[in-house]
Amino acid sequence: MGKNYVDIERDNGETLRYRKHVNGRGLIAHGARVHASALIEAGAYVEPGAQVAAGARVLRGAWIESDAVIGPDAVVEEQAHVGTGAAIGPGARVGVRANVGDRARVAIGVRIRDDETVGDGQTVSTDRRGLRLAA
Q: Which pLDDT score is estimated for 15?
């Protein structure tokens, strides 16, 4: 039986240990909190201090940086990146190769398109008609 963890050395020489999530085998750093019902696919990374809620899905190749929060039932698609301290609301979807910047906020149910970038500190929400608003 293989190991349930992987050690990765950073550029600064520091070594981080990642455990393989039971649901999908993605890599979870020590200090990250991921609900057991969340799916973290193989090839995805969740960094220290990040939180992934129940029912959320982080797909192959996605990267969740430190202190980011992924809400319940949110989806982070393949190769997407969620920056340090960013928050993805419940039921939101971050598209393939999309980039959500540091400290950005994506509201409940918002859809970020494939290859779209949400800038550092930007907030993206929807109005009652479903139109996207950037503040």
A: 85
The owner of tokens 């993206």 is 124
Ramachandran sector of residue 18 (left: φ over 0; alpha: ψ -120 to 50; beta: rest): beta
pLDDT tens, residue by residue, 11-40: 888 888 899 999 999 999 999 999 999 999
Residues 6+ apart with CB under 8 A from 123: 104, 105, 107, 134, 135
- The residue extents of the domains of the chain are 5-124
CATH topology of domain 5-124: UDP N-Acetylglucosamine Acyltransferase; domain 1 (2.160.10)
